[in-house]
Amino acid sequence: MKTYFIPFVAVVIGLSSCNQKTNSKDECGSGRADTSQVKAELKGHSDFNLDQVLVSQQEVGDFPYLSAPSGYRHGDDKEKTLEEKYFFHKDSLIQKISGKYFHTAVYQEGDVFEDTYVVNEYKKAIENLGGVEVYSGGLPSTASDLIEKEKPAYVSDMYDPSPYKYKQFLIRTPNENIWIELCHGLNANQIDLTVLREEVLKETIQ
Q1: How is residue 69 annotated by DSSP?
Q2: Does residue 64 have a cis bond before it (omega within 30 degrees)?
Q3: How far apart (Å, rounded) are the C-alpha atoms in residues 200 and 172?
Q4: Contacts of 63 (CB under 8 A, 6+ apart)
Q5: How far is Cα 202 from Cα 206, in angstroms, rounded to an integer?
């Protein structure tokens, strides 16, 4: 027993130390970021931490960064130098973000509107820019109460904020936080797309 006990303990300790390493590595000893693990921890997490979202290494391009998928178009565009909008990560955590604002409705150019296809195409485009999904679900009750109480201006741009399915994303760059929202599953052949660019101090980006 003594011959094998020490190597066994060493292996266990080695595996334990590997598992305790930061979630930004996808395997022990690897320096590659495990974005899928980051996404899993952030989505709907009550202790949302902005610093868990890695700074994108991609060139994000010009505001508002996203174009319509093939077979679809943007319509009724609205752009504002400054607007406030709610972003949420769980019912108990609502953030009011302010910055340069863009809202558009996404319509089909043909006869068929495919909600799931459009959402997935935008999601892929956002993730290719280094974005992370931070929320997916219905309108949280806390956000609904704030909308009813404060009646924010952005709500008038939306088809109807209450029955939507929401997907919200964050792209961090050295100078900006880019917040993106898709509202879908409507009783209409359209999807609402909102982009809000929040300028941040360089020293706050890690």
Answers
A1: P
A2: yes
A3: 10
A4: 100, 102, 195, 197
A5: 9
